[in-house]
Specification:
By secondary structure, the protein is α+β, with helices and mostly antiparallel strands. The chain folds into two domains: 173 residues, Jelly Rolls, CATH 2.60.120; 93 residues, Orthogonal Bundle (Arc Repressor Mutant, subunit A). 47% of the residues lie in helices and 20% in strands. It contains 13 helices and ten strands. Strands 2, 4, 5, 6, 7 and 8 form a six-stranded antiparallel beta sheet that branches. Strands 1-3 form a two-stranded parallel sheet. A hairpin with a 2-residue loop joins strand 4 and strand 5. The chain is globular and about 55 Å long.
Length: 319
């Protein structure tokens, strides 16, 4: 049902496992394969995990469930999933899988550039990942498949400047996704984009065991003053760094409640709360329910097979 109810609570929990690039793939920061079934059927993919890179799944047809954070998608088809590095996902009950998987890093996609446009693209990816399932028509998905086939050809043959060609194809796919998502988030205006500083701040929060650290810690790591970090983050997001840290903690708490059987106290400890009661108060203030109530609701929703949200034609719809 999307949750392994047989998991035993463990005080030694160190967070969701993180899949890493290895060897030449790590150096390049990119990988593509049309053997998505090897990923879907792999043992390590059937437990909640995250990646140290972006994952794009071009799913032509899957029989089974794909779970992303707190959302469960049954038998997706002609769908692109774009999963951020902070998100948790896994497969369950897969009997058939057809599609392509693409892994890439910021460094690969925006190599040798730190322009406003590249920073805006990072924002687009992060916005799309908030509703990671993008539904396409059959013909639209075929167009994306054609591009991925060209990427595989370049990746396999490795001709001169092949990485530049792959990067171009990847950007075209992202444009296609952005077209489908048009209307689900604000267009670029030159003032509503996040700076590299703000993006790096948000990424740091989501690293392993970096929850509930003070703003001063992040400012020091980023090489800026607390005042400057507060000013820039609040200007660009409308939220203080402290509030963003708190929201990130709540999202991770929801992931842990939905995808593990850890006791509430263990989740509180993992997120660096010294007091369980305070964790419960912070959670209820943000979610309007206690951690126990939230976990019960997640299990009830999954057992009832409630449908989840896709992006299709510029709108968020339930399918």
């Amino acid at each position: 049902m999307g949750i392994n109810y047989n998991l035993k609570p463990s005080s030694g929990f160190n967070g969701f496992s993180t899949h890493l690039f290895e060897g030449s793939t790590k150096k390049l920061g990119f990988h593509i394969s049309d053997a998505i079934d090897e990923s879907a059927f792999a043992k390590e993919s059937n437990t909640p995990h995250r990646h140290s890179f972006y994952e794009m799944l071009l799913i032509k047809n899957v029989k089974g469930k794909h779970i992303v954070d707190f959302n469960e998608y049954d038998n997706p088809e002609n769908t692109v999933f774009l999963i951020d590095m902070s998100q948790v996902h896994y497969w369950e009950g897969i009997t058939e899988a057809e599609g392509t998987l693409i892994y890439f890093t910021d460094d690969f996609l925006f190599k040798n550039t730190n322009s406003v446009n590249s920073i805006w693209e990072v924002n687009i990816i992060k916005e799309i990942a908030k509703n990671p399932a993008i539904k396409f028509s059959k013909s639209e998905f075929c167009d994306i498949e054609s591009l991925s086939s060209l990427m595989i050809k370049e990746y396999t043959e490795k001709k001169r400047n092949y990485t530049s060609v792959i990067r171009a194809y990847l950007n075209i796919i992202l444009v296609q996704i952005r077209r489908n998502c048009l209307g689900t988030f604000p267009p670029y205006s030159g003032t509503n984009h996040l700076s590299r500083l703000t993006i790096e701040f948000q990424d740091m929060i989501n690293r392993k065991n970096m929850y509930n650290l003070p703003v001063s810690y992040f400012a020091r790591e980023l090489g800026v003053s607390v005042g400057y970090l507060n000013e820039q983050v609040k200007l660009q997001t409308g939220l203080t760094p402290g509030k963003i840290i708190e929201e990130s903690i709540i999202i991770e708490a929801k992931r842990l409640l939905a995808n593990t059987n850890l006791m509430i106290k263990e989740i509180s400890d993992f997120l660096n709360f010294e007091d369980l009661a305070y964790f419960c108060r912070v959670f209820k203030r943000n979610v309007d329910s206690t951690p126990s109530q939230y976990r019960q609701r997640c299990r009830k929703d999954q057992e009832q097979g409630l449908k989840n949200k896709y992006i299709r034609g510029g709108k968020i719809v339930n399918l």
